[in-house]
Description:
This protein is α/β, with parallel strands linked by helices. Helices cover 34% and strands 24% of the residues. The chain has helices spanning 68-72, 75-82, 108-123, 138-149, 175-179, 185-193, 200-206, 221-234, 249-264; strands spanning 7-16, 19-27, 35-41, 53-59, 85-88, 126-135, 156-160, 210-215, 238-243.
Amino acid sequence: MKRILLSLVLFLSLISGLSAQSQHILTSKHIPKADTVWVFTPANYTADPAKSYPLIYLLHGWSGSYQQWNDIMDCQKYADEYGLIIVCPDGLYDSWYINSPAIKGSQYADFFFLDLFSFVAKTYRIDSKNVFITGLSMGGHGALYLFEQKPELFRSAGSISGVLDLTNSRNDYRISEYLGLKKDDSDEKTLKAHSVVGNIEKIKQSGKEIIFSCGTADPFYNVNNEFRFKCDEIKVDATYISNPGAHNYPYWKSNISSHFEFFKSRIQTN
C-alpha cells in the first residue's frame, strides 16, 4: 500500500510561445482539502528537453492563496528573466506550513515534503542542487521553517516580513488552535518548537546562507530584528535587509527581486 495518497485531478497548461504555466490540484491524506499549485517554467524550458533548471518555491501569506505572488509580481516574467522554475503552492489560507500537533488532518509540512516536493521533482526537470524557498508573512515563516526541517533539500532560503516567532502572535491567526495551546508551561515549548527562531540552530548546523527582509513600519519588524541579533549571536550566515516599508504588497513587490538576485548569485554550477 502506498504511504501517501497523491492524485492529480487537474493539469492545465497555458502555453504562450515557448513559455508555460501549469496549475495542478493535489490531494493528500496530510491536508484537509486539495492544494492548488501554480508552476511557471522559463521561456526556454521546452527548447532543450535534457536541461534541468533551478527552482524556487514562493509561499504566500496568511489568508492568501497560490495566486498571491502572481498578484504581487509577474511570476512568468521572473521565471523568464532568471531562467528558473517558480512553484506557488497554496498554504490553505492559514496552515502556517507546519504539522499541527492538535489537528490530525492538518500536516502541511508532511504534505510539502512527501507529496508536493516529490511531485514537482518527478514532473519537472529540476536541478536538485539549486532548489530555493522564500515567502511573505506566514509564508516567510513557512519558508525558513521548512528549510530548517530539511536543509539538505535546499540551496538557500529566505523570508519577507516573516512571522519568525509565533510567541507574540499566539492568540491570533488560529495559531493557538493549530498548536493546541493549553495556557500552561507546555505552550512555550510548543511555540518554540514550531517557530523559526526556535529552530535557528538547525540553520547554523546546515552551514547554508539565508536572506530575510522586513520594513521598518511592519508590525513584525521587532521580531525580525530579534532574529537578526540571534543570527549574529550564533553566527548564522544571514543577509538581513531592513528598509522603509510596511506589511503590504508594495513592500513585498519591491523586495522580492533582492531575494531572486541573492539566490541567483548562489546557484551551484557544478
